[in-house]
Amino acid sequence: MIEVIPVSPKKGLTDFIDFPHDLYKNDPYYVPELFIAQRDLLTKHPFHKHNSLQTFLAYKDGKIVGRIAAILNNAHNKFNNCNDGFFGFFDSINDQEVADALFAAAVNWLKEKGVTQKIIGPVNFSTNEPCGLLVEGFDSSPVLMDTYNFPYYIDLVEKQGYTKQIDLISWNWEGQNYDDKSVRLLNTLQERLKRSNINIRNINLKDFKNEAAKLREVYNKAWDHNTGFVPLTDEEFDYLAKDLKLILDPDFCLVAEQDGKVVGFGLALPDYNQIFKTIKRGRLLPTGIFKLLLNKKKISRIRIYALGVIDGYRKMGIEACLYGTIIKEYKRKGFKCAEAGWTLENNTLINNAIAAIKGDPYKKYRLYEKDI
Known about the structure:
Blueprint: E1 2-7, H1 13-23, H2 35-43, E2 52-60, E3 63-72, H3 74-80, E4 85-92, H4 96-112, E5 118-121, E6 133-136, H5 153-158, E7 163-174, H6 181-184, H7 186-194, E8 198-202, H8 208-222, H9 234-245, E9 253-258, E10 261-270, H10 273-276, H11 288-294, E11 301-309, H12 318-333, E12 337-344, H13 348-356, E13 360-371
Parallel strand pairs: 4-5, 11-12
Antiparallel strand pairs: 1-2, 2-3, 3-4, 5-13, 6-13, 7-12, 7-13, 8-9, 9-10, 10-11
């Protein structure tokens, strides 16, 4: 018998966070999320001030066998003029009955909240956070802030009647296997931009609060036409920025500005998943914190996490300068591989640009949808 139980912050939350550790304990590519980060995401994130979610655990014969979250993102519905719900944090044993029970619980909760159109997922909580079901590229560990799942999840979801909404692509480079044209032309491109009073600089960590406010404005403008996009509130962006500040390298956080106005930015992050993978069950204490502190210099991969330019400034060479500078620093610092992503499959402009510098589309994630 399968029983699905709602989870609350005071009862069952630790089991909800820890379930994937047991499910994937024999998987060589699994990377545990940090417990404290997942706990805060599910309880303290500013998302909860204007949206809601309900987490569920599935039990079979008294043992936890799956989890899911039903998510009502009011900001998404208002921005996109729709009445959709979402599912996220989905994990399950390879048992269709378990998956069916979990999805039924999520759908029923969303219906009770008044959702009448679609249920979309997986997202944790929106496309601003980790999202998408891995459908291609199961032969390596996820990079920082990417998702990961067993291949059988595809069947569990699709047998529920979910169909593809859109695919998200992650691109890979190994070693020096890239076209460095943007690096070779960097000085020429920068000189051309300077004639329009546009310059590329590193983020100023000493003035991080003001810098973050400028980047937030660009972020909400540069990505606003993307499928599923939801603008981040000031609090949500500040929450994200505060976490990223702990791990970012200013040489990989670049700002494009014209006469003091920020018009674009590029951000690459060291792949801390290479360390998180060694931290048992995502616990920083008692020994995980030392692994985190002592192994930072051993990180060999970066993830180009975000790169965007606002309308009116695209196709001027800013994107090429941002990529060129990141590649130049990647080479100078001796990193061995890089990931860019994800990108929407229908973003022809950026996908062609990445392919032109020999990016390998090595992983694909899928957002699914279903009429509720």
